[in-house]
Design brief:
12 helices; EC 2.7.2.4; VC0802-like; single chain; alpha/beta; Aspartokinase; binds magnesium ion; 33% helix; transferase; Aspartate_kinase_CS
């Protein structure tokens, strides 16, 4: 029997009615001839509530107990989904992560899946079970303790099961009907994409298009798991949602697939640092130790023997970054004249695999921003992405202008 993985996010299992709706979808796929592995999230809001209880009880909590508590929301929805399916006369049972077992590292609250042996579940399929309902987000460490995979981790559970069982596809049911060219709240011209390449989705996911956990896309790309993102609130149809797939499956695509943004960024510049071998390591080592997520980096020569170093990070990490730099200065590891912080910037990016074969994308982007009078503060590029930092107050305008400039409202 071909296998299908179906993952239902928190809003799709938010109450008993929604679980019943989701179960009907599962029944359709069983009728289509699939053995189905259903991965469920906790009911929406549940995980946040559990995290809140942990914080209230023990601010400096033991991460193993955090995982034991926070993983429990998924146990409830897995059991309820299995019961609902049984009520529909579909042979189904639930599995908690450790029962499969989903073997992970021991990095509590942010564990990685290492292995999912398929034999237990396959044996049950062999005995006539049609649906295995698995609690997402959780696993078991080599020490035998419960682990969780980081917030949003049940997407990653779903992709990992699809890879481990050689599933035909992994359908991710959520409350949006697919992946858009940009955030529809910023421009009504945003268009749902029928298909998007793994690499593009990876850039969009990590740039803040919050449909999929970034790690799930990495995993899908590595194992070539075809992912479909679709809404559980719409009527079933073959063309529903967005297929995230290998670029070879995409015949026609626009040069730019989408415009992404990240609103709360900050730009920090160390002015006039002594220019010597090891200086970058001396700056970014302490930043990383302080837990600062540095994104863009620009180094510029200022005067003979001196250099300016600019980097960006999330705005809520500015104080930590500044302290790390002042401490490094005090201890004599680096020396700089000034540290200038601009905490009012946003990042806007255009992403598309078509950039590899098309020249002039950057020029086109910069002209569109110039036409709106928007000043660019930092630019970085990769093979399939161009990002700029601009004043936060122009972010929406920039997204709209770029969406228009690359005609993303039109399909390729
Ligand atoms: N329930 C977990 C969370 O809210 C995992 C998930 O839903 O993906 O992060
Ligand atoms: Mg999610």
């Amino acid at each position: 029997m071909p296998t299908l993985v179906m993952k239902f996010g928190g809003t799709s299992v938010a109450n008993l009615d929604r679980i019943a709706r989701a179960a009907k979808r599962v029944a359709l796929e069983v009728a289509n001839g699939y053995d189905v592995i259903v991965i469920v999230s906790a009911m929406s809001g549940k995980t946040n509530e559990l995290v809140g209880w942990v914080d209230e009880t023990s601010p400096l909590y033991d991460a193993r107990e955090y995982d034991a508590i926070v993983s429990s929301g998924e146990n409830v929805t897995a059991g309820l989904m299995a019961l609902r399916l049984q009520e529909m006369d579909i042979p189904a049972r639930s599995w908690q992560g450790w029962q499969v077992p989903v073997k992970t590292t021991s990095a509590h609250s942010n564990a990685r899946i290492e292995e999912i042996p398929a034999d237990n579940i396959n044996a049950k399929f062999g005995e006539g079970m049609k649906v295995a309902v698995v609690a997402g987000f959780q696993g078991i460490s080599p020490e035998g303790r419960i682990t969780t995979l980081g917030r949003g981790g049940s997407d990653t559970t779903a992709v990992a099961f699809a890879a481990a069982f050689g599933a035909e596809r992994c359908d991710i049911y959520t409350d949006v009907d697919g992946v858009y060219t940009t955030d529809p709240r910023i421009t009504s011209k945003a268009r749902k994409l029928d298909k998007i390449a793994f690499e593009e989705m990876l850039e969009l996911a990590s740039l803040g298009a919050k449909v999929l956990q970034t790690r799930s896309v990495e995993l899908a790309m590595r194992y070539k798991v075809r992912l479909r993102v679709l809404s559980s609130f719409e009527e079933p149809s073959d063309s529903a949602g967005t297929l995230v797939c290998d670029e070879e499956e995409i015949m026609e695509s626009n040069v730019v697939a989408g415009v992404a943004y990240s609103r709360d960024e900050a730009k920090m510049t160390l002015i006039s640092v002594a220019d010597r071998p090891g200086i970058a390591a001396a700056i970014f080592g302490p930043l990383s130790e302080a837990g600062v997520n540095v994104d863009m980096i620009v180094q510029n020569i200022s005067e003979e023997g001196r250099t300016d170093m600019t980097f960006s990070c999330p705005v809520d990490q500015v104080l930590r970054a500044a302290k790390a730099m002042e401490d490094a200065k005090t201890s004599g590891d680096i020396n700089f004249h000034d540290l200038v912080t601009d905490d009012g910037v946003a990042k806007v990016s255009v992403v598309g695999i078509g950039m590899r074969s098309h020249a002039g994308v950057a020029a086109h982007m910069f002209k569109a921003l110039h036409d709106e009078g928007i000043n660019i503060k930092v630019i970085t590029t990769s093979e399939i992405k161009i990002s700029v930092l601009i004043d936060r107050k122009y972010m929406e305008l920039a997204v709209q202008a770029l969406h228009d400039a690359f005609e993303l409202e039109k399909a390729a």
